[in-house]
Amino acid sequence: MTETVHPTTAIVTGSSKGIGAAIARRLARDGHAVVVNYARGAEEAAGVVAEIEAAGGRAVAVQADIGVADGITRLFDAAEKAFGPVGILVNNAGIMKLSPLANVSDADFEQHMAINVGGVFRGMREAANRLADGGRIISFSTSVVGMKLPGYGVYAATKAAVETMTHILAKELGGRKITVNAVAPGPVETELFLNGKSEELLAQLRGQNPQKRFGQPDDIARVVSFLAGPDGQWVSGQVIRANGGVV
Ligand SMILES: NC(=O)c1ccc[n+]([C@@H]2O[C@H](COP(=O)([O-])OP(=O)(O)OC[C@H]3O[C@@H](n4cnc5c(N)ncnc54)[C@H](OP(=O)(O)O)[C@@H]3O)[C@@H](O)[C@H]2O)c1
């Protein structure tokens, strides 16, 4: 297998909005050709592609549900067809439904497992088999794995699984100079985080951060840019808690 050269082709799962959209824009600015993946947000994904192209970058939108068996495979097929061999996979797509453990339905548990664990597992497996040597795999955890807040039981458990697979895959792929890392944000102002929270609760949470603000998608995209770029080569098997110092 030949070694990845920078810039390369990057797949960002769940990049029609939120953190993923910021990562797609940033990686395109770094010179990579970007696959903007979405499950339902076709219009939003097309908007991200249009922004990237307007700024002189290269991108294509690809619909694929990462929670189902062939979603990731189709994504890699589409990426290779559009731009050639994939060098970077960002396993960003995820869902979060908060509830005390006692009230979590089987359906919600299974959905979290299918998308947050299954989608990342299949992404890692596909990348392990299809990424060129020297490639990058960056997955998404959460700072709640450390904070262990009530209501986050199932969601945080899925992200703990992501962290464990990250540490182990880094050892399995190190010989091919593929780095494998996870980014674990604290609160970032996106739909996933803001959904269902009152202004009062948001003010309280904002006040708990040492920097007295929430993260913005671009704060996280910068970390991904570093891990995906040439300067990140010696960082592997790590979980970076990008959260302004909250934990
Ligand atoms: N925001 C935070 O405070 C925070 C903190 C820690 C960790 N994180 C993690 O960061 C990642 C991004 O979160 P976010 O806040 O940006 O979320 P978001 O605003 O809800 O965006 C989620 C993205 O994932 C896509 N997606 C959801 N299910 C999918 C599926 N089955 N297949 C393909 N794409 C799917 C969505 O696309 P569609 O709309 O098309 O479905 C959307 O583009 C997640 O893994 C999340 O757990 C977020």
Question: What would you say about this model in short?
Answer:
With 247 residues, the protein is an alpha/beta fold. It is built from 9 helices and 7 strands; from the N terminus they run E-H-E-H-E-H-E-H-E-H-H-E-H-H-H-E.
Report on this structure:
It is an enzyme of class 1 (oxidoreductase). With 247 residues, the protein is an alpha/beta fold. It has one domain: NAD(P)-binding Rossmann-like Domain (Rossmann fold, 3-Layer(aba) Sandwich), CATH 3.40.50.720. The chain has a seven-stranded parallel beta sheet with strand order 3-2-1-4-5-6-7, with helices on both faces. The protein is globular, with a radius of gyration of 17 Å. The site of NADP nicotinamide-adenine-dinucleotide phosphate has 31 residues, from helix 1, strand 2 and helix 7.
